Amino acid sequence: MGLPPAADAEAGSLKTVLASLDDSKAEETQTIDIASKTPLADFMVVTSGRSHRHVGAIADHLLRDLKTAGLGTARVEGLPNCDWVLIDAGDVIVHIFRPEVREFYNIEKMWSAEAYSERRVSACAHAHRHRRRRPPQSGPGTGALPPLPGPRAKDRQRPRPKGLRCP
Fold first, then answer.
1. Which domain holds residue 103?
2. pLDDT of residue 117
3. For residues 47 and 94, is the Cβ–Cβ distance under 8 A?
4. Assigned domain for 69 exists
5. Helices of type H across 29-98
6. In degrees to the nearest 10, what's the CA dihedral of 144, 146, 148, 152?
7. 26 lies in a domain?
């Protein structure tokens, strides 16, 4: 009893990518599961080469290995400069950086963060737990002073963008 064909193909392409990067002596390889964050791909692999030449050699080797594994021809960006090469292999997106460029862009941090909708839900829950209580209404018998004249409360609130409501 194995994986479904689609899941087996995804695991196969990721294994092919990681094996090729290891054979090419790529450094600091990191795999990020992005399936729940974007429909672009299931995995993102970020790695580094020591120099322009090493980054180009890693990319060439990976493209050759993907083709021999029967995973088709991947789309490539950045190969002429070899500062940052992006290889789109369908289910796996591979970023190959020179170390300085990788440190500057720091895409691992961006893609490893929790999804925006999860942050929004947790922020809304926090705000609801710690919201201010309304003061008692003024009027006879309440002991509260009437409110000071000034702008209405609804005019003081910033408009909330549509579609960003707390669940």
1. 5-112
2. 53
3. yes
4. yes
5. 52-68
6. 110
7. yes
Domain assignment present for residue 60? The answer is yes
Residues 6+ apart with CB under 8 A from 65: 16, 17, 19, 20, 23
With respect to residue 78, please indicate whether it lies within any of the assigned structural domains.
yes
**Gyration radius (Cα) of the chain, Å:** 26
Residue 116 in 3-state DSSP? helix
**Per-residue pLDDT, 143:** 57
State the Cα–Cα distance between residues 6 and 136, nearest whole angstrom: 60
84-123 confidence digits (pLDDT tens) = 999 998 889 999 999 999 999 988 888 876 655 555 555 5
pLDDT of residue 115: 54
Q: Of 101, 91, 92, 21, which is closest to residue 60 (Cα–Cα)? A: 21
Rounded Cα gap, residues 94 and 22, in angstroms: 13
Task: Classify residue 28 by its DSSP letter.
Answer: E
Longest CA pairwise span in the chain (Å): 85
Q: Which residues contact 66 (CB under 8 A, 6 or more apart)?
A: 13, 16, 17, 20, 72, 73, 74, 87, 89
Query: Higher pLDDT residue, 18 or 158?
Result: 18
Q: Give the CATH number of the domain where residue 88 resides.
A: 3.30.460.10
Q: How many domains does the chain have?
A: 1
